[in-house]
Amino acid sequence: MQIHRTLHTGFTVSNLERSLAFYRGMLGMEVVAQQVGSAEYLSKVTGFPGVRLNMAFVKVPGEDDHVLELLEYVSHPGEPTPHETNRPGNGHLCFVVDDLSAWYHELVARGVPFVSEPTLITAGVNRGAMAVYLRDPDGFTIELYQPASRRETAGPEART
Amino acid sequence: MQIHRTLHTGFTVSNLERSLAFYRGMLGMEVVAQQVGSAEYLSKVTGFPGVRLNMAFVKVPGEDDHVLELLEYVSHPGEPTPHETNRPGNGHLCFVVDDLSAWYHELVARGVPFVSEPTLITAGVNRGAMAVYLRDPDGFTIELYQPASRRETAGPEART
Fold it and tell me: Which of B2, B23, B30, B53 to mutate to test the interface with A (most CBs of A within 10 A)?
């Protein structure tokens, strides 16, 4: 009896179209499937009787083994949770990129809020990489991460 | 400029040892690395000056491409966020298992709170699978999912 693999990470969003504009339009992810769900099994799994969900499954192009599930609770919209990452129960999702500096400048120009500028990891198991936190349209934290091994192909400022 | 792949999902936890007892001791995940972080870069990335983190990286045995990062903000413990999955900003993480019924009975016997019993997915792209939501020690939602393709080998009814 053991876990076979990780299937997906899910976020609850307040507006699926707005989230798709971010994950597809800004981060370049692909929509694998999109559906409205209101079958009885969803009420049972989620614990919300009569639930109706707008759902989209998105993935990194070329990556087949991990999906991001975006769920809008149309019938039971809840209050947003505070997004600070020091609060137990909050999560984040981390994507590997080749050129963090270019991503940072592009997304800042498009109005995406970042916690900091791209930052060199100076200690620990990820030493030599660069990372940054940003917030999605619901305040969910996304980390963009450029491994040390990929820094040779990145912008000049990332090499210093 | 495109995302290369998904690296990890991170959860903020209130007590790393308690969370490891759950993810390692109950779900059978492996600890890849464990470290205490207080370097300056962590303050910058997280936005918490002088932050000190207890961190563990755990993974599904045999799976090399997705890590779960558990982060305890020792220096800046925040208030827990409400865990209901209808709140925008909340997330969940889904694992594939072979025998959902066995997992359910084992974890219930060990006191893990579930939202429902294992439930057959009757519609949509995952039709024929079974799924259930449970809560980790901080109330973070974990989904266990048994694909339709794995149901032949699962469940006591299939074995007897």
Answer: B2
Q: Is residue A86 part of a domain?
A: no
Residue of chain A whose alpha carbon sits nearest to that of B93: A9
Is A123 among the domain residues?
A: yes
A99 and A61 share one domain:
no
Judgement on whether residues B67 and B109 belong to the same structural domain of the protein: no
What range does the domain containing B16 cover?
A: 8-73
Give dist(CA A5, CA B140) in Å, integer: 18
Give the predicted TM-score (pTM) of the model.
Answer: 0.90
A:90-149 residues touching chain B, CB 8 A cutoff: 90-99, 102-103, 106, 115-117, 119-125, 131-133, 138-140, 143, 145
- 8 A C-beta contact, residue B6 and residue B93: no
pLDDT digits (tens, 9 = 90+) for A117-145: 999 999 888 889 999 999 999 999 999 99
